[in-house]
Amino acid sequence: MDILSVIQLKPETWPLPIMAFLRITTLFFFLPIFGDQVVPIRLRILLGLAFTFFLYPLVADKMYHPERLLQWSAVTLAVATFHEVFFGFAVGYAAKLVIFGVSVASHTVGINMGFQVASMFSPGLNDHESSFSVMKNWFAIILILTLNIHHIFIEGLVKSFVYVPIAAIPDKVALMKTVIEIAQEAFELGLRLGAPLIAVQILINISLGLLNRALPSLNVFIVSFPLSFLITMIILFISIASFLKLLGTYGMEKEVAWFETMRRVFVPMNSQ
């Protein structure tokens, strides 16, 4: 199907590109980077419209949709609209897993480094965070773009129209299980990303405690902040290679599990 065929739609199939537009645009409202408040709403809508215009002809011939959905009624259209918006929200919110994991790690490390006072506004999380946390979040975003992890979500978006039908109803049990798995993976990823820095900070605190016992006249409180900052930054730069490898491996694992999750959670309406 070429681009001109999008304009020349049959009367019974005209809602399909609209449903595709709703799915894609809702996804852009919640994806990392694109869903940040610094990105204007009009730009997100234009991105959704552009992606729909170029992607729909590629997947229209392969798009699976129940035959009875071609007989559109007001109720069917409303239900399909809700399901497409919900699908975009669910997938987009799950895509923020990497950013949430990095935020958990950087927030924990930033507090131990004494950066809880020096807070900045994080547009990605719409909240104030320590300057170290904001720096590491932006670092993770740069790595995501550099390692082409965002291509996984775009590829999943294209293939979602093949594997997940229009107006697919989420399986409630599988959906709750997926939400729990996402929360577990976010905590695990944050712990793995911040483990070297957290371990170093624990050793620093133990060493300073022993030093305070040995030299009571030494002002450990004044020494602890610059010492902790210096050593933590050194370990951070040393562990950048492991940080890259972990994010790359995680991205490949998510690419494998992406479609299996969609098949498990979203099922066709005619199978309910």
UniProtKB/TrEMBL annotation:
User: Which terms does the UniProt entry file under GO BP?
Assistant: protein targeting
Instruction: List keywords of the entry alphabetically.
Output: Cell membrane, Membrane, Transmembrane, Transmembrane helix
Origin, by domain of life? Answer: Bacteria
InterPro entries registered for this protein in UniProt: T3SS_IM_R (IPR002010)
**Ranges that cross the membrane:** 14-34, 41-59, 71-90, 97-118, 138-168, 189-208, 220-244
Instruction: Family membership, please give it.
Output: Belongs to the FliR/MopE/SpaR family.
Protein name in UniProt = Flagellar biosynthetic protein FliR
> Which organism does this sequence originate in?
Fluviispira multicolorata
